[in-house]
Write a structure and sequence with these properties.
Blueprint lengths: L1 H17 L4 H8 L3 H9 L6 H11 L21 H9 L3 H23 L1
Helix pairs in contact: 1-3, 1-5, 2-3
């Protein structure tokens, strides 16, 4: 069961970071401490159904999205969207723009080669 708790916590963290929210921001929205958010995100504390509903609402996602592919994940492993998000947010704005440009070019080349 711990694996599921960690996977859901990782999803909460991913969505929170994607919105640019700190743990304190999310905690304030939920009326809890940032330490509790840390415990949820690390999987140390299991998230009750009612709290999960509140978290999903605060993040603007469905509860189901927090469970998406949970059976196939073991939490934070290299190559997960969370790792990519961490790496991306650690870049300067200029590097982020370069990366987006590169990703667009790669996507266009991939689409072109698939249709050829």
């Amino acid at each position: 069961m711990k694996t599921i708790d960690k996977a859901i916590g990782s999803r909460i963290r991913m969505y929170r970071k994607a919105l640019g929210l700190s743990q304190s921001d999310l905690a304030r929205e939920l009326g809890i401490t940032f330490q509790q958010v840390q415990k949820y995100e690390s999987g140390a504390n299991r998230v009750a159904a009612s709290r999960l509903w509140s978290i999903a609402d605060a993040l603007g996602v469905s509860v189901l999205s927090l469970f998406q592919d949970v059976a196939q994940t073991d939490g934070e492993t290299p190559g997960t969207p969370l790792e990519l998000l961490d790496l991306y947010t650690g870049l300067s704005v200029n590097k982020q723009m370069e990366l987006i440009s590169f990703a667009r070019q790669l996507s266009q080349k991939t689409a072109a080669s698939l249709s050829a």
